[in-house]
Amino acid sequence: MSVTTPRSQAPQTASRSISGFLSARPVWLVGVLATLAGAVVTEVFALVSRAAGVPMEAAGPGAKEAAEIPVGGFFGGVVFWSVAGIVLAVALARWARRPARTFTVATVALTALSLAGPAVAPHTATSTQIVLAASHVVAAAVIVPMLARRLAHVRR
Predict the structure, then answer these.
(1) What is the pLDDT of residues 68-96, one digit of tens each?
(2) Which residue, 41, 66, 78, 104, has most beta carbons within 10 Å?
(3) Angle (nearest 5°) at CA 105 between 103 and 108
C-alpha cells in the first residue's frame, strides 16, 4: 500500500524544502542567490514594461536630459545595490540579537527611501518614474524575504 501526499500539501512541502536548502547555506550565498533571482525578475518586469510602450529614459540629479536605460540596466542596478544588502545581512547574522527582524525593518525602510529617486527624476516620463519605483519594490519583494528567512535560522 502506498501513501501519497494530498495535493493541497504539495506546494507547502516544496516551500519547506527550498527553505531548508537555504537555511543550510551561508548567509552570503543566500544573498547572492536572492540577488540573482531578484535581478532576473526585475529585468523581466522592465522588459515587459518596455514592450508595453513605457519609455526607458531617465535622468539623474543635475542632468540636462534623460538618457536611455539599456536592456540589462535593471539587472545591473539590482546586483550593484544588493551588495550593500548582502554585507548588511552578513553583519547582522554575526552581531545582531534578532538579525531577521533587524534586516527586514532596515531593508523595508531603505526600499521606501529609494522610491524618492524615481519620484524626483528630472526629464523622466511619469510612466517611467512609476516603473522605476515599482522595480525597486519588485526587487525587494524577491530579495528581502529570502535573506530574512535565512537570517531567521541564525544560531547563537
Answers:
(1) 999 999 999 999 999 999 999 999 999 99
(2) 78
(3) 100
